């Protein structure tokens, strides 16, 4: 009998690929589910959250609550993050919560790859390819923005003073990973 | 003693750290804190290179980055092997380190004996514009003789021949104030700017020690401290401030818009041990709120016969070698000057025990207090004297001087024996970066200099580059630029000079070789010749004579050249113009500019989730935009042709499997999704049922085909749009553009899902059999799941959007699965498909199969000027929709006119002959040239399924030419082909839409 229900995930960057370049840690996040949520203000009607995902943050902010997070990337655009196993439930809950109001909800869990870049000088490593001002007062903890890293688009979020998340499309992940590892060489000694 | 000219005490060298380098194969000794130039002088040698054009022996002219002569090839880590050598390093700024291997350039067989010196004897031939005048004819010599000869003779240094083995880093940074230059003005500016701890201040200096001119100042007192103490205290204070970043060895070389400043930091060349992975250089891109330019000034040489002899250097540079490097440039010194500042150099040299005399062009009464001070120190000063010429060849042996009389008369010559000369013709503020910032220069006649005028950006100049030369004023000016306001007490500096362009002489100036531009070997008489020949703008003189066009950008020569041109024309200097300063300020290595963008980090190489399987299974790849795609899968012994023919056959006879993951995919969601689709595409979408697919055609506003692809309706308010691989980003941008600017009222949102789903295409009569066992929750029967339909369900236990579509004409499916599952699903299908002879195929086979069916590829059949009707696709253009992008343009007269190129098939008379894609098509090959062209071949393949070659072409009035024989260009002439419908293959049995 043919076994047919055995599909396994093959991530773009194997989780084993952790670089501890001195004090800097660069590692792909695993088990992260991601949803692209779009809705205009009139559809949200001033609500603070949709099924537990915050929608009241400022543009370019990241709000987190336990193992979920909401990144507001534009006036009508959010990236919701939750454990990958919760994706189906989260989607149903969001659809219910929106109750027919105009919106778009698309599962992009497999589209994106997120890296943790953390440790002293993590900001300098990101500044090797990203032109944003990452000083703590200009890019405080809780900031998230679509930007570039070298020749790749990324979404950059700061979750701690020395703790960043770099999200890119799957096929750009090896490039972003390689450029991060290269930049970290400056701080290996 | 190997350093016979090293002074017994003083200097900023670390005598506890001796070191040696290899200089032209010989050992050269020095200390930490030395440059190669100071080590060479300590050894007693000035000879450091041969000149560019005449191969004249040249010495060390300066102590800084303006050095035009002493250019070295440096192997930075010879012990680590090849790839670490670069040419044209200035000996005056190469920081000495144990183990460097340096060599001089532009000579053969050796520095001492150089054959090229014959050029010097032929100098009367090599006048300005020599190339333009000489290498004009015969024309046949251009490629064969002149160019190779000139190429061999031209250029300085040898380009490296192996890839650079070093790593280069890149870094973006932001600050509130960037101070460029850490001399007295820059340090003072940085101190003032950083007093407010909330301001981020960066201080960059090209040197390895901070202090600028104060590094060679052993006499000035600032607020009771010595210059050295003041620098040390300033640096310590800055160092202690958290808000200050100090970057020595960092050259600001480019000043761009919005205070975007580029600089290069030399990170590791000076380190005895550089750990693996440490960058050699780092490119900084700084966005500064405010830029303070404290870049100092450049000393001008004096222009007299043989002023380029080794041993003749700038006076302030001589002072730097004596005071900073503790090196005597000679035993017997003559300082020739028209500037007060050179007296300080003479006094310091005298104090260091060097026999010193001064020749001053200025008359006694024009000199300041410096004159009395020099005389009271026992220095002989000849005022009102000109320098006629220098004596000596590879080393200066004396200066011939003569008193200047009334009315230009020149008195009796006198020879001053010497082995070194310090010269000064005054000072030129370094306005390079200010000029790069697009600020306007203003000429100050009093200072005989262009100074920063109107700023174009948030920038301010301070100190010598601002025309401020007195030390007290320099420090106060710096503080002001940094936002402070201080008063200091400082020793008065000797300032002021009398501009002289070319020193008066008692011989025919037309016979005198007095150098203006040392690096490009331009003499005063070359410039005079250019002016005589009618060049009156400095921009023209510059290009004709090449003055100021060498890698030093004329730092030492520009003002002398400008002044000379103005003098000959008898016009005020500013009316001649000033040259434009362009980045980089000093040469920058390609490595620093490239940074990490090399090898696998040169560009992102996008790979699909199935790429690893394809690679393991022997695929040949081709790049398609940033993607690498499997091109074909050759078996052992197969060439591309054989592999593609086998793959094509397999798809039509059994089943093929193809990775279509790179297709662009956009999820269009919202209550107005169908309306949006109606406006963006030419087709009508309202009637497409949920679960149905439709081929869509998209135009630009001009009516030409922009992209195409299959669109599936997943729900009333949800479409799954596919685009071409290369078109994905621009289609997304096109859609967003219309949505945001034209139709913000539509409630619809676009999300790229290109990389969310991998796409596995199964095509061929057995496709369904391969698929069937793995699919759950979808009825695959023909009735339940017809051609051009989409279903959502599961494959191998994971969610799929399963499309029943075909780009081959065969029955086929495209399996969309979340990307991380794709490899696993692919392998399951492939293993199960083996019993049907499943054949993986690549893009080439895909192209052949679709051509057999006459399916177009946007970008191959179209070139941005094809309308739907040109492609035979007018049926896809809705006649009932009130509007869509491009609709209005389709009624333009030229779009509806007769005679447009139309898509047709072409069949060569000889079925084995495959036309060239891009080949031109004509009706009559014997027509007169230029012969009327009817069109060109867009796609051409050999088709094993058709048993012959097939081609598509865009041909004028093509559809009316069916059966007509036309002529198509080949590499050797023309061949005949017959116009036919662009459908070549009739699918047997289970067709796509059966």
Automatic annotation (TrEMBL), chain A:
InterPro entries cross-referenced by the UniProt entry: SoxG (IPR007375), TrmE/GcvT-like (IPR027266)
Pfam families for the chain: SoxG (PF04268)
Protein name (record): Sarcosine oxidase subunit gamma
Automatic annotation (TrEMBL), chain B:
Domain SoxA A3: 512-593
Entry-linked SUPFAM superfamilies: Aminomethyltransferase beta-barrel domain, FAD/NAD(P)-binding domain, Folate-binding domain
Domain GCVT N-terminal positions: 612-880
One MF term in the entry's GO annotations: sarcosine oxidase activity
Cited Gene3D superfamilies: 2Fe-2S iron-sulphur cluster binding domain, sarcosine oxidase, alpha subunit, N-terminal domain, BFD-like [2Fe-2S]-binding domain, FAD/NAD(P)-binding domain, Probable tRNA modification gtpase trme, domain 1
Domain of life of the source: Bacteria
InterPro entries for the chain: 2Fe-2S-bd_N, BFD-like_2Fe2S-bd_dom_sf, FAD/NAD-bd_sf, FAD/NAD-binding_dom, GcvT/YgfZ/DmdA, GcvT/YgfZ_C, GcvT_C, GCVT_N
One Pfam short name: SO_alpha_A3
GO biological process terms on file: tetrahydrofolate metabolic process
Domain FAD/NAD(P)-binding: 176-437
Annotated Aminomethyltransferase C-terminal domain residues: 901-984
Keyword Oxidoreductase: yes
Keywords associated with the record: Oxidoreductase
Family to which this protein belongs: Belongs to the GcvT family.
Protein name in UniProt: Sarcosine oxidase subunit alpha
Organism: Fulvimarina manganoxydans
């Amino acid at each position: 009998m043919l076994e047919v229900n055995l599909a396994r995930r093959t991530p773009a960057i194997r989780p084993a690929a952790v670089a501890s370049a001195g004090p800097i840690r660069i590692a792909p996040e695993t088990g992260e589910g991601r949803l692209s949520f779009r809705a205009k203000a009139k559809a949200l009607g001033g609500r603070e959250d949709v099924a537990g995902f915050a929608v009241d943050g400022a543009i370019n902010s990241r709000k987190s609550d336990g193992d979920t997070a909401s990144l507001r990337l534009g006036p009508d655009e959010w990236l919701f993050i939750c454990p990958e196993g919760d994706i189906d439930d989260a989607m149903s809950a969001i659809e219910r919560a929106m109750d027919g109001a105009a919106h778009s909800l698309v599962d992009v869990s497999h589209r994106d790859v997120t890296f943790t870049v953390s440790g002293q000088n993590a900001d300098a490593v990101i500044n090797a390819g990203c032109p944003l001002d990452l000083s703590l007062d200009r890019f405080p903890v809780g900031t998230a923005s679509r930007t570039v890293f070298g020749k790749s688009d990324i979404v950059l979020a700061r979750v701690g003073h020395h703790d960043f998340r770099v999200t890119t499309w799957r096929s750009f992940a090896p490039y972003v990973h390689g450029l991060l590892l290269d930049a970290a060489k400056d701080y290996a000694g | 003693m190997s350093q016979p000219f090293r002074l017994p005490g003083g200097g900023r060298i670390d005598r506890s750290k001796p070191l040696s380098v290899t200089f032209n194969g010989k050992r050269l000794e020095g200390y930490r804190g030395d440059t190669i130039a100071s080590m060479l002088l300590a050894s007693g040698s000035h000879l450091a290179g041969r000149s560019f054009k005449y191969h004249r022996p040249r010495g060390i002219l300066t102590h800084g980055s303006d050095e035009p002569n002493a250019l070295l090839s440096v192997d930075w880590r010879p012990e680590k092997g090849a790839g670490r050598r670069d040419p044209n390093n200035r000996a005056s700024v190469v920081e000495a380190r144990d183990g460097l291997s340096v060599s001089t350039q532009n000579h053969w067989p050796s520095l001492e004996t150089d054959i090229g010196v014959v050029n010097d004897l032929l100098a009367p031939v090599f006048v300005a514009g020599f190339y333009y005048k000489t290498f004009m004819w015969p024309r046949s010599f251009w490629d064969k003789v002149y160019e190779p000869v000139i190429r061999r003779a031209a250029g300085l240094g040898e380009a490296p021949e192996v890839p650079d083995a070093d790593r280069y880093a890149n870094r973006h940074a932001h600050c509130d104030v960037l101070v460029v230059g850490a001399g007295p003005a820059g340090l003072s500016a940085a101190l003032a700017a950083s007093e407010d701890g909330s301001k981020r201040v960066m201080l960059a200096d090209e040197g390895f020690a901070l202090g600028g001119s104060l590094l060679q100042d052993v006499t000035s007192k600032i607020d009771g401290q010595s210059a050295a103490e003041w620098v040390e205290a300033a640096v310590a204070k800055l160092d202690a401030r958290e808000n200050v970043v100090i970057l020595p060895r960092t050259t600001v070389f480019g000043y761009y818009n919005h205070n975007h400043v580029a600089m290069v930091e030399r990170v590791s060349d000076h380190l005895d041990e550089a750990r693996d992975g440490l960058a050699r250089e780092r490119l900084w891109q700084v966005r500064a709120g405010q830029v303070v330019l404290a870049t100092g000034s450049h000393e001008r040489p004096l222009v007299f016969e043989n002023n380029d002899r080794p041993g003749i250097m700038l006076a302030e540079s001589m002072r730097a070698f004596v005071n900073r490097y503790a090196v005597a440039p000679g035993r017997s010194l003559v300082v020739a000057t028209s500037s007060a500042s050179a007296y300080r150099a003479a006094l310091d040299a005298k104090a260091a025990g060097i026999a010193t005399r001064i020749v001053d062009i200025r008359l006694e009464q024009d000199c300041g207090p410096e004159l009395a001070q020099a005389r009271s120190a026992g220095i002989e000063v000849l005022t009102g004297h000109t320098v006629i010429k220098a004596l000596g060849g590879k080393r200066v042996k004396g200066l011939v001087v003569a008193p200047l009389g009334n009315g230009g008369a020149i008195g009796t010559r006198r020879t001053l024996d010497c082995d070194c000369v310090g010269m000064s013709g005054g000072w030129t503020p370094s306005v390079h970066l200010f000029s790069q910032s697009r600020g306007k220069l203003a000429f100050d006649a009093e200072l005989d200099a262009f100074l920063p005028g109107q700023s174009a950006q948030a920038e301010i100049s301070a100190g010598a580059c601002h025309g401020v030369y007195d030390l007290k004023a320099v420090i106060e000016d710096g503080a002001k630029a940094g936002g402070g306001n201080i008063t200091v007490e400082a020793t008065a500096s000797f300032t002021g000079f009398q501009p002289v362009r070319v020193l008066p002489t008692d011989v025919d100036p037309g016979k005198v070789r007095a150098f203006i531009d040392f690096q490009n070997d331009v003499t005063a008489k070359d410039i005079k010749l250019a002016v005589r020949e009618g060049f009156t703008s400095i921009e023209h003189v510059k290009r004709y004579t090449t003055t100021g066009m060498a890698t030093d950008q004329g730092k030492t020569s520009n003002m002398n050249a400008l002044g000379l041109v103005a003098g000959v024309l008898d016009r005020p200097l500013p009316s001649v113009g000033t040259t434009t300063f362009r980045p980089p300020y000093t040469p920058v290595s390609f490595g620093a500019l490239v940074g990490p963008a090399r090898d696998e980090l040169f560009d992102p190489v996008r790979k699909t989730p199935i790429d690893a399987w394809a690679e393991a299974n022997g695929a040949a790849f081709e790049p398609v935009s940033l993607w690498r795609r499997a091109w074909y899968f050759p078996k052992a012994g197969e060439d591309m042709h054989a592999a593609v023919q086998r793959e094509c056959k397999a798809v039509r006879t059994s089943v093929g499997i193809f990775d279509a993951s790179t297709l662009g995919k956009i999820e269009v969601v919202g209550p107005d999704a169908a309306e949006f689709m109606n406006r963006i595409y030419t087709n009508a979408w309202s009637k497409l049922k949920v679960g149905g697919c439709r081929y869509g055609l998209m135009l630009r506003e001009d009516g030409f085909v922009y992209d195409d692809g299959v669109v599936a309706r997943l729900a009333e308010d949800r479409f799954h749009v596919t685009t071409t691989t290369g078109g994905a980003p621009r289609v997304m941008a096109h859609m967003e553009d219309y949505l945001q600017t034209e139709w913000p009222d539509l409630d619809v949102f676009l999300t790229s899902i290109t990389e969310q789903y991998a796409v596995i295409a199964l095509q061929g009569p057995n496709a369904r059999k391969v698929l069937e066992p793995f699919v759950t929750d979808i009825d695959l029967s023909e009735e339940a799941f017809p051609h051009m339909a989409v279903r959502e369900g599961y494959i191998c236990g994971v969610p799929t959007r399963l499309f029943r579509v075909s780009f081959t004409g065969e029955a086929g499916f495209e399996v969309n699965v979340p990307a991380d599952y794709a490899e696993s699903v692919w392998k399951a299908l492939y293993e199960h498909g083996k019993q049907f002879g499943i054949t993986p195929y690549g893009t080439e086979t895909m192209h052949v199969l679709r051509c057999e069916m006459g399916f177009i590829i946007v970008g191959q059949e179209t070139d941005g000027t094809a309308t739907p009707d040109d492609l035979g696709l007018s049926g896809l253009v809705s006649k009932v929709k009130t509007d869509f992008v491009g609709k209005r343009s389709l009624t333009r007269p030229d779009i509806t006119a007769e005679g447009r190129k139309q898509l047709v098939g072409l069949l060569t008379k000889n079925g084995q002959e495959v036309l060239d894609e891009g080949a031109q098509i004509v009706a009559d090959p014997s027509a007169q040239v230029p012969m009327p062209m009817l069109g060109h071949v867009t796609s051409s393949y050999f088709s094993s399924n058709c048993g012959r070659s097939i081609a598509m072409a865009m041909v004028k009035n093509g559809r009316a030419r069916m059966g007509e024989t036309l002529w198509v260009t080949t590499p050797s002439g023309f061949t005949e082909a017959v116009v036919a419908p662009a459908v070549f293959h009739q699918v047997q049995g289970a067709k796509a839409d059966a």
